[in-house]
Amino acid sequence: MKKQQFEIKTLKEAFNKMKEYGLDPDIYRMNFGVCINENSNFSIEFKYKLKVRGNKYTLVEEVVDSTNNKVIGEKLLFNKVLVRKLEDDGVSEEWIPILTREDVVNMIIDLNTKDIVATAYASHVSGMKSGYAQFDLETGILAYLGVEEKTESIKPAAIILYKLDKDFSFDETILLTKEEMDKYQEMKEEEFISVKIFLDNKELNHGDSYEERILNYLSKDYLDWKKIEEQLNQWYI
Questions:
Q1: What count of other Cβ atoms lies within 10 Å of the Cβ of residue 164?
Q2: Rounded Cα distance, 171 and 38, in Å
Q3: In angstroms, rounded to a whole number, what is the distance separating the alpha carbons of residues 227 and 133?
Q4: What's the rounded Cα separation, in Å, for the pair 29 and 32?
Q5: Nearest partner of 43 among 62, 64, 28, 12, judged by Cα
Q6: Count of CB atoms situated within 10 Å of the CB of 56
Q7: Is residue 76 within 8 Å of residue 83, measured between CB atoms?
Q8: Is 5 helix (H, G, I), strand (E, B) or coil?
Q9: Pick from 52, 140, 171, 184: CA 20 to 30 A from residue 213's CA?
Q10: Closest-CA residue to 98 (of 118, 116, 113, 78)
Q11: What is the residue-wise DSSP string for 174-221?
């Protein structure tokens, strides 16, 4: 979709353009003025650029050396996106501010991989429902994605950091130590017992639980940054 860019010289123009696109300028009040240094005949002015593409809006404040007509700095004032939310009376649309792309990337980098995996695991039901770890672009909160939320009609301002497929399977005996493996094999000869039951039985296992071990195992995976960047491209100009 083609991107539109509007260069605006006054704050009033910026606010009028924001209103034209359904944005609330009162949320983004800021000081505006022209600074003049009489000794050096150097002046600075502020310009505003509103960039629009599809369901995304960005307002940037530029600091301009008006004497030399050169941009000497800029500041992102806001990102805002259109999301669809499920209400009691149906689906509604709402414009919401989101974190900057740079902040989102830094926050994801700071997350513990095990916490991300654990979030996806919390909503995973083997053979029935995949588990998703979702990062909210508005709040910066990591949460699991419920099955009722993953619909085409609802578009939260969020990206998926990790997915645990409902059909995920692996040789669970790799979670056992050599001593535990020997004990487990002995028990299996007498009666069927799963690795999960074995590890979660405190009388048989004095180490980490099944969940703790499977989370450690899955946490060895690296985040797919290519997919993360592709999702961020959908939300940022």
A1: 21
A2: 76
A3: 14
A4: 9
A5: 64
A6: 18
A7: no
A8: strand
A9: 140
A10: 78
A11: GGS-HHHHHHHHHHHHHS---HHHHHH-TTT--S--HHHHHHHHHTTS
Q: How far apart are CA 51 and CA 49, in angstroms?
A: 6
Residues 6+ apart with CB under 8 A from 105: 232
Q: How many Cα atoms are found within 13 Å in the side-chain-facing hemisphere of 126?
A: 3
SS3 146: coil
Q: Which two tokens stand for residue 152?
A: 């085409």
Domain ranges of the chain: 4-86+93-97, 100-165+219-233, 172-216
